Amino acid sequence: MLADNIFSRPSRAALALCVGLALTAGCKKGGGSHGHGNGNGNHNGPIVFFENEPNDSPGFADVIGTVTADSNFFIDGHVQSFPGFDTVDYFEFFVPEPVVIEFIVEGFAHNADLDLCVYDPDLDAIVACFESPLNPEVAEVVVHEYGKVFQILVDAYSVDSEYTIEVFGSPYLVPVASQGIERPAITVAPDALETAAAKRPEAAKEEDAATAVRERT
To answer: CATH top-level class for 13-216?
Structure first.
């Protein structure tokens, strides 16, 4: 089953996935490019990974590395809105044990609206999407499986934009009531669902206003 789409507006992520798979079937994965530095977001302290093009499909995802319960790092990149040439960026992670991961995606362009989806290579499917009109976009997932590889993809809903993704890992303690229950490898964190439910009326109003502006222009 595809994961819960927190907001219901139309997404191009699934289309980008299909196109990417069609274009890159049988291609090798691209190596991640990373370095220590300020990047686009003027970060101080944590490691900054810089996207390495092409990374516009699962087969060419930038391999960032391991995420654990004490991870904190940034990923800097640039993405174009449809119908540009660089409309989606993929990044791959390895999780050695169950963990909660929060992604904070901030676009730097005026009116930037970036979305984030989670792709499970084992299922060959997008299993969660976070597509609010808010900037930054906040996504929180739980990875339940040991030794899990997964990817995220970032796309621009409205305008081309440079962006930064801050990644936080935190421990996941399986609730007693859930122990022994079979679960999908990746789920949306309960806190993220509660936050989305609280924001949904406001987000819907903002999206309606944005749609009206696009229709007038």
So the answer is: mainly beta
